[in-house]
Design brief:
Elements (H helix, E strand, L loop, with lengths): L9 H4 L17 H19 L4 H7 L6 E4 L5 H6 L20 E8 L4 H16 L10 E4 L5 H9 L1 E9 L10 E7 L11 E7 L6 H18 L8 H6 L7
Parallel strand pairs: 1-3, 2-3, 2-4
Antiparallel strand pairs: 4-5, 5-6
Helix pairs in contact: 5-7
């Protein structure tokens, strides 16, 4: 019977969840490592296909009068096959958003890991909504949504800054990561990725909700000062000008 052999880099496995130093059994992987890979792949697949329970998020944010919208993608399969539809509001949702005079709006989007947003989205949203001196539009829960959908939502709400909290594409070592994308003066269909800032890897084994909230609020504060986001705004500079009450 072939015995599994270790790897010279075994010690690195203790420092990272990355799939390194897997060892070998003959010409292949040890059975344990192969099963771990298949389990991780199944979890990633489930994360992509799981539907967001939008009603639960609305209930958790009731005090802020949240709004539920859908993209132009009618179902999960279409959402995955047609990314362009996930960037546009569905016709039935266009009238759900009312325009006001707001500094920012927060969009909770399912993206490619609804489970990640379900677990962490409302807690992070509440931390941001507690920021002083910011006029927030009613938060928006968006189904079958890509990042760019936040541009149209912010424009329809009259918000100067879009903060999209979205379930990130699952990896084999993380299916529960949320990303935050910030865009100043977003233009539907015209804003480029270079115009956004991103705070990523928000999850239990990554960036904590508290630290993510601190970084997002710092970027928001600097964005309002310089009226820009993206390549014109550096996160380190934003942290340096964070208001004392938010540091």
């Amino acid at each position: 019977m072939t015995q599994a052999t270790g790897d010279f880099w075994d010690y690195l496995r203790r420092a990272t969840p990355a799939r390194i130093a897997l060892g070998r059994a003959g010409d292949g992987l040890p059975t344990r490592r192969l099963l771990e890979f298949e389990l991780a792949q199944a979890r990633a697949r489930d994360a992509v296909w799981t539907e967001l329970d939008g009603e639960a998020l609305l209930l958790d944010l009731t005090a802020w009068h949240p709004v539920l919208v859908r993209s132009a993608a009618p179902d999960r399969l279409t959402f995955l096959q047609r990314p362009d539809l996930g960037r546009r509001l569905g016709q039935t949702s266009e009238q759900a958003l009312s325009c006001g005079d707001y500094d920012a709006t927060i969009i909770l989007a399912d993206g490619l890991s609804a489970a990640a947003l379900q677990a962490q989205g409302t807690r992070l949203c509440k931390m941001l909504l507690a920021a002083p001196n910011v006029r927030f539009a009613p938060p928006v829960v968006a189904l079958q949504a890509r990042v760019a959908l936040g541009d149209e939502i912010a424009a329809r709400q009259g918000a100067a800054l879009a903060v999209v909290l979205i379930g990130e594409r699952p990896g084999l070592s993380s299916c529960d990561s949320v990303g935050a994308y910030l865009t100043f003066a977003p233009q539907p269909g015209a804003t480029k990725d270079a115009g956004r800032n991103c705070v990523s890897n928000i999850r239990a084994d990554g960036l904590s909700l508290e630290e993510a909230s601190r970084r997002i609020l710092a970027i928001m504060a600097l964005a309002r000062m310089i009226r820009r986001t993206g390549t014109a705004l550096k996160e380190d500079e934003a942290l340096e000008v964070l208001p004392p009450q938010q540091a």
